[in-house]
């Protein structure tokens, strides 16, 4: 069969991608580009979940799993501070225990080393895939290749040097800068900053939501369709995959049939996979952001993302805002947002920057303040690895979920890998560490 005939054959096949965040969008775009007829489904809209107002940092330098033994002594104090960098809701405490047990287990050196190698492989070409994709979508302006800084206020030089060596040993392009060198890169940084690590090969987007929509529009231009629907169940038969939907305010309950299905609905994937008899130990690790509007004069406040090592948050310059993002909150999917966690980011930023933009929230209504604050549920697994695989017991169903803090970073490479799985081609990297079988 020649290439043209092969593509024509695939055109007859349909694929449902459940979840219109950055992961689902990339999967849908790749499969549509390969000749499948793709329907992207989401209960809300394109890019409106965790992909909407995140930090916008393509953090390919983050190759170390979050489960680190040094956290054992820090966690109790952090978890008990409701406005600290990590918070655990009292109501969610007992539900979260099994996840934390697995998280602590992944601190074992052998598992941590294995998981680090897997993250290195996944992140290695993550940004290259994005630059190629955004160029093709005529959206190259949405990515900035200026690197990022990790700054230190109180850490001793020996600790910073050790961290620098740690990243270098993992193959990360990084420079250790003193205060003068750091301020030369970012003059608006505070004199509180003593050292920084300059990650030269990472990137950021000036608008995460615009990036999601640009890629979705590119997929639509190739023939992809979007349907707003809440998928409540998946079954596979000999002939295909059947989806049951709850409908929305604008659509009725439907039963939809496709040849293949990709589950990419992040923290909301657990129940769908449970219906397929797969165990998914996923937590909704809630993150907050506060977007401070900037005017033309304030656009030079920063030129690249700056993360604080001690305060555990990040500041990213975007098109019309300075976005402060970070904190971790374990409270489940449905608990009301605690926007005090977003507001505290501004107090932290005052220690990092000499000048901050004035927030409209201080001048206008309380409603405006809430519009600037945002909360999203990161889909986190206890080993810090996503699930990217063909379902072990369902040959027509594929999983692309659980990317924790790195959904934006790993979106394009995940889409490429799903395309290779669906077409039964050799995958770009070894996907065995990412199979859901590790939990089943």
UniProtKB/TrEMBL annotation:
Record keywords, A-Z: Oxidoreductase
Statement: the UniProt record of this protein carries the keyword Transcription regulation: no
Limits of the FAD dependent oxidoreductase domain: 15-421
Chain segments annotated as transmembrane: none
Nuclease is among the record's keywords: no
Domain of life: Bacteria
InterPro entries referenced in this protein's UniProt entry, alphabetically: FAD-dep_OxRdtase, FAD/NAD-bd_sf
This protein's name: Amino acid dehydrogenase
Classification lineage: Bacteria, Pseudomonadati, Pseudomonadota, Gammaproteobacteria, Alteromonadales
């Amino acid at each position: 069969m020649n290439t043209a005939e092969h593509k024509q054959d695939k055109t007859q096949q349909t694929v449902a991608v459940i979840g219109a965040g950055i992961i689902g969008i990339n999967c849908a775009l790749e499969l549509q580009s390969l000749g499948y007829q793709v329907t992207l489904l989401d209960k809300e809209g394109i890019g409106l979940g965790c992909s909407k107002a995140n930090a916008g940092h393509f953090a390919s330098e983050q190759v170390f799993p979050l489960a680190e033994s040094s956290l054992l002594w820090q966690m109790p104090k952090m978890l008990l501070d409701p406005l600290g960098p990590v918070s655990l809701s009292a109501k969610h405490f007992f539900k979260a225990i099994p996840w934390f047990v697995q998280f602590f287990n992944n601190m074992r050196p052998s598992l941590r080393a294995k998981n680090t190698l897997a993250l290195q492989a996944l992140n290695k070409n993550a940004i290259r895939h994005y630059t190629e994709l955004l160029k093709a979508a005529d959206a190259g302006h949405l990515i900035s290749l200026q690197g990022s800084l990790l700054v230190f206020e109180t850490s001793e030089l020996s600790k910073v040097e050790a961290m620098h060596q740690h990243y270098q040993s993992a193959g990360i392009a990084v420079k250790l800068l003193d205060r003068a060198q750091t301020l030369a890169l970012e003059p608006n940084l505070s004199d509180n900053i003593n050292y920084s690590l300059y990650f030269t090969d990472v990137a950021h987007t000036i608008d995460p939501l615009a990036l999601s929509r640009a890629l979705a529009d590119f997929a639509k231009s190739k023939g992809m369709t979007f349907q707003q629907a809440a998928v409540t169940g998946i079954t596979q038969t000999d002939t295909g995959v059947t989806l049951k939907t709850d409908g929305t305010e604008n659509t009725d309950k439907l039963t939809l049939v496709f040849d293949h299905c990709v589950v990419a609905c992040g923290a909301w994937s657990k129940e769908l996979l449970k219906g397929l008899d797969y165990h998914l130990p996923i937590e909704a690790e809630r993150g907050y952001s506060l977007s401070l509007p900037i005017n033309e004069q304030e656009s030079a406040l920063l030129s690249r993302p700056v993360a604080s090592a001690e305060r555990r948050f990040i500041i990213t310059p975007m098109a019309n805002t300075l976005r402060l993002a970070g904190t971790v909150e374990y409270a489940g999917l449905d608990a009301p947002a605690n926007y005090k966690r977003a507001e505290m980011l501004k107090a932290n930023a005052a220690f990092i920057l000499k000048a901050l933009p004035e927030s409209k929230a201080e001048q206008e209504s309380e409603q405006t303040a809430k519009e600037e604050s945002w909360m999203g549920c990161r889909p986190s697994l206890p080993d810090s690895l996503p699930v990217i695989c063909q379902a072990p017991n369902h040959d027509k169903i594929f999983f692309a979920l659980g990317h924790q803090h790195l959904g934006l970073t790993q979106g394009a490479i995940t889409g490429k890998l799903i395309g290779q799985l669906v077409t039964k081609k050799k995958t770009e990297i070894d996907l065995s560490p990412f199979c859901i079988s590790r939990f089943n």
